[in-house]
User: What shape does this take?
Amino acid sequence: MAGSVSADRGRARQAAQRVLRRHSGSGRSLSRMRLAINLGYYGLGADDDKLAMAQEADRSGYAVAWVAEAYGSDAPTVMAWVAAQTEHIDVGAAVMQIPARSPAMTAMTAATLDHLSGGRVRLGLGVSGPQVSEGWHGVPFAAPLGRTREYVEIVRRALRRETLAFEGRHYQLPLPGGPGKALKMTLRPRRADLPLYLAAVGPKNLELAGEIADGWLAIFFSPEHSAESMAAVRAGRARSSLADPADPLAGFDIAPTVPVCVTDDLEAARAAIAPYAALYVGGMGSRERNFYHQLACRMGFEREAAVIQDLYLDRRHRDAADAVPLDFIDATSLIGPPDPIRDRLGAYAEAGVGTLGIRPYAATPEGRREEIRTMARLLDEAGLSG
Assistant: This one.
């Protein structure tokens, strides 16, 4: 096992170094990247540290601070809290859940936050999963692709201050046969083209993101395993009215969140990140319907993903985390000493990443802030700062 991991790590590092040498020798530069900080969920501990990390990222030139929601804290409230105490960094929803709000309410919230923040909002949307959609919000999960397509169209129309008259399969505005009136937003949004991202995992969702969104919020993104996902995004982008036919991905933001642990102790890094990986691969959904589990299988970790899921659904969460292999963590994270991490950044740029979100995993608040500063320095040293 250790020999296999070392060999895989060595091949990944060598590939990243070849990418950098190839581009430096050809006179062609890699795509520039911006950094983001992912603050995750509020209310699960160390909440003051989340604000401190956002402020450190703001000082370090990061592009955006992403905020999550599931069935605890909501994203817009935390976005407003962060925006009020930072100066330059964008605040982004990663994500606002589609079943949690009507599309008009989402447009109102995004437009209001964009005004209050001085034009610093990025709107990320996602359908969540059937357990949360139906169990928490009471909204059917059926036909998520069609529901998302209609939802995004209504949000965009509202942000353009169009009068909302919409006849879809999932949404009708106004409701037929009643006293409803087609309305338009009274607030004038700062930006009718406010950046809109979709969280997507499966191939059809990835195509939809490419077709109707301005960016893709990715999870468990591995440059070495990204070809299939990127092909799906390109296929959708080729059909998009938003795309430049000469360069369909131009202006489309590939925005993964990547765990970061700067350390010489790879096993300690694996142990720190493994509970997060186990939660998603093993427990974020049912046995039959877990999109993250399916992604791990497509990446070649079928056997390991099955073990993780069995343990997690049996409520053996610690054992599930212990079962997450270092190979998976290494493929989907940035772990190790600074120099190898710097070298690997080229692989993300080569894969098409535009905004590289990081989630620091150092053990202390100061250690996490130092990782934020370190990543800014390493991106600059790699010549990839955008």
About this structure: Residues 2-130+189-381 form a domain with the TIM Barrel fold (CATH 3.20.20.30).
